[in-house]
Amino acid sequence: MSACSITLTPFAEADEISRVEIAYQFDELNIPTGQEIFRAQLNTVSVPGAEPMDISVRDEAGEVPFTLRETNPYPILYRHFDAARDTQGAVVIRYTVQPCERLSQGRHGPYFQFAKENGGVSGPGLAFLVDAPSWQGDVSLHWDLSHLPAGSKGVCTWGEGDVSYQGELDHLRQAYFAFGPVRSVTEGEFGFYWLTEPPFDVNELAVFTRNLFGVMQRFFRDSQPVYRIFMRHDLTESSGGTALERSYMFGWNSRQTVTVAEKQNLLAHEMVHNWPHLNDNPYGVTTWYAEGTAEYYSIMIPLRNGLITKEQALSEIQKRTDAYYTNPTRHLSNLEAAKICWQDRRAQRLSYGRGVFFLANTDAKIRRATKGKASVDDVVLDILEQGRNGATLGNEVFLEAVKRIGGIDVSGDWRAMHEGEDFAPDPDSFGSLFTVSEEKAREADTGKETLSYRWALR
Ligand SMILES: [Zn+2]
Questions:
Q1: 398 is a domain residue
Q2: Range of the domain at 315
Q3: Which residues does residue 251 pair with via DSSP β-bridges, in sequence order?
Q4: How would you classify the pairing of strands 247-252 and 241-244?
Q5: 47 and 177 both lie in a single domain
Q6: Largest Cα–Cα distance in the chain?
Q7: Domain boundary among 220, 235, 266
Q8: Which of 41, 292, 409, 440 has the greatest number of CB atoms lying within 10 Å of its CB?
Q9: How far does the centroid of ligand 1 lie from the alpha carbon of residue 8, in Å?
């Protein structure tokens, strides 16, 4: 099997990391003239990645000339580096990236910036590591921290320090990274990492997420030990989170108080993303499922496990109701919303609201139809199992699983949700713990009169 060794060499200057030299050494990479050697992800959902500079490609015959081309499969921008002659044998790709400054204005995230923070850098692999999509083999990642102050560390989702695995380079690009003066709370392969010492009890957050990981892992029938969480100090006035494979990054800022009670739902939402999802191609066609399950289980799993109270769950459900039913963009279809969601962030929230209420309604319907024997949990776990067995998962897989497990056809409800038609929350949703009634409301931004819902404890 072919091997690729990747070395990351960060350089510190004036108390910050100014650049990172990156080398990919392939023991064999045979690319014919005109074909792609590698690609850089220059933009992800409107967030710029680190642009490779000072690029050199060499093989056993010397320097490999290349040509550039860009493609834009929405919402990503790639720069492709194509071979101008056949490559021969071992290939070494070298380039340099400069980490950016954290956003200081506007809205936070998504956390796809490769950004400096307090003498270190953090961000996702996809923002600074190039990909060679045609290649797979033995990958090893090495850190050369000799140009950083003593005590500096390098960590990514897949481990602290050097890591290796067999597979595609993309596996490393789907990881979060942090290096420099990285601090941590760890337990085995579970880790919680940060670069700026916050003014709140970070240990309390780390312990909370560790417990959450335990209960979610049991619920989703997962036995892999790796999970790593990265925390960023935002300079913006709002904060959020972004999940990748077996990891997420979330932010805090100096304007908003940070407690477990304030952050628990966000931390749970991002963690759920590790498990349920359907194939989201074309972009936006199944986002309702990823965001809907993340919203639904960010409430239901902590509630069932005593990590939050019924009153807290009620408040989380009401927040989502207010947000969705007064969103002026709520009549856009899922595909229309996906096209504009990174320009109009109101449309970006639609998949969350309609996803959670559609799933909660489906749960109520399945439980009524099966007299409590089955629930939407069985559907979600069934789809997860199909995914582990390699199935390609689309909306029809969801509808088929509801039919098979719940004995009901929800394709009409699904279409209404997908097209952005009005639908009301089912009073038996969210575990039959609440009542729900109609109430007059005003749309956000437009102030137009509209219909929303009020929840109360039963
Ligand atoms: Zn999400």
A1: yes
A2: 287-457
A3: 232
A4: antiparallel
A5: yes
A6: 75
A7: 266
A8: 292
A9: 30
Is the domain of 316 the same as that of 241? no
Q: How far is the CA of 198 from the centre of ligand 1 (A)?
A: 24
Closest C-alpha among 84, 267, 246 to residue 174: 246
In the chain, how many domains are there? 2
- Token pair belonging to 214: 């335990």
pTM above 0.85, yes or no: yes
Cα–Cα distance for residue pair 402/386, rounded to 1 Å: 14
Residue 358 has pLDDT above 80, yes or no: yes
Q: How far is the CA of 45 from the centre of ligand 1 (A)?
A: 14
**Alpha helix segments (H runs only) across 273-394:** 287-304, 310-325, 334-340, 345-348, 350-369, 376-388
Q: How far apart are CA 33 and CA 39, in angstroms?
A: 16
User: Which residues, in sequence order, are CB contacts of 363 under 8 Å at separation 6+?
Assistant: 375, 376, 377, 429
- CATH code (residue 380): 1.10.390.10
Q: How far is the CA of 200 from the centre of ligand 1 (A)?
A: 24
3-state secondary structure 185-223: EEECCEEEEECCCCCCCHHHHHHHHHHHHHHHHHHCCCC
Instruction: Give me 348's structure tokens.
Output: 């970006």
Q: Are residues 82 and 202 in the same domain?
A: yes
Distance 16 CA to ligand 1 centre (A): 31
Residue 387: pLDDT over 80? yes
Per-residue model confidence as pLDDT tens digits over 171-197? 999 999 999 999 999 999 999 999 999
Q: Of 207, 231, 266, which one is at a domain's C-terminal end?
A: 266
| Cα 81 to ligand 1 centre (Å) | 32
Same domain, 254 and 329: no
